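Archive transcription. Copying these from loose printouts into the bound notebook so they stop getting lost. Printout 1 of 2:
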Amino acid sequence: MSGIRLKYFYFFRSFYFSVFLACASYSSVAHGWWFWTPGDTVDNVGYKPEQPIPFSHKIHAGDRKIPCEYCHSSARRSFSSGVPSSNTCYGCHKIVAGKTEAGKGYVTKIKEAYESNKPIEWVKVHDLPDYVRFPHKRHVQTKEQGGAELPCQDCHGAVETMEVLEQVAPLQMGWCIGCHKEKKASLECGICHY
């Protein structure tokens, strides 16, 4: 090779190599940021919105020992755990009226929702981005059913002790991946992402 050609060869080789290194570095930083940074609402640890009826999980799941899946019955067979319909609430509360005046007032609201066939507008506490596929059934079903048989508390905390439901886990991708690694579950992207 002539001296001029060799000079250009080394220039372009070092130029493209520098561009490659810059792109690879940027990509690594960007991927790391995206991988560990929360989306819009996943990192709301401590989030406990005001609900239309101040529902106490402590009374229902703790003191009364009502299983999570009694009210959240779709958790074992659906992607979403769902919130109970006014029919589910009123099924018990047409018999149990509430002990305090405030409690009786809340039961009246449940009855009105039931009789008007309108849902109670609960505010979502645990919210994942739309591109995340989180099948509750896959996590709560028994191992014989093909599930992981995880207790609700693994993601939602000690709900049975909460007067007001709040988000206790960051629900970030890295947090989920950590659990998948610990439980030796799949890390394939398509398992959790659309």
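Printout 2 of 2:
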Amino acid sequence: MKNGLIFPVTAVVIFAGALFAGYGYAQGFGGHHHGMSAMGSCIAVMSSSQKANLKQTFSTQRQTLQTDRQNVASAKQTLVSAILSGSKDVSSQESGLASAQQQLQKDEDSMAEQVCSQLGSTQLSAAQTLFNNLTTLHANTRQQAKSYFQQAQAATGNSQSQTEE
């Protein structure tokens, strides 16, 4: 029985690693927000002296982004609490969450703009190419992982596919 678990456990670990690696590359340094992805690509093509100047930008924005993230977490908790308490109308909580997420997005985009504005045109072009390549890598990694799971299911005789995500 223990040997029978090796393949599924290994497959899950490989899939998770591939998925997170591809996702991380495609999304840059800061998560799934497009501004942060742009920032990651811009940082990757910066010279050493440009990177040294980032400390000031990051220290200036750190508290703002931390507050924004706390506001998003709080708004999510408020929404979950309302749902779990049986509330039939959670539109105000959803609006609060949307507002908090929008502010976080704006502040992340603002920081990305500050970082990317330090680049010259050749660097910006290289950052765009990098971003496009990593986005393609992410899509390919997800598709390949999905294919691996489908192959594994087919090999075990499981007719259920993962196309319904």
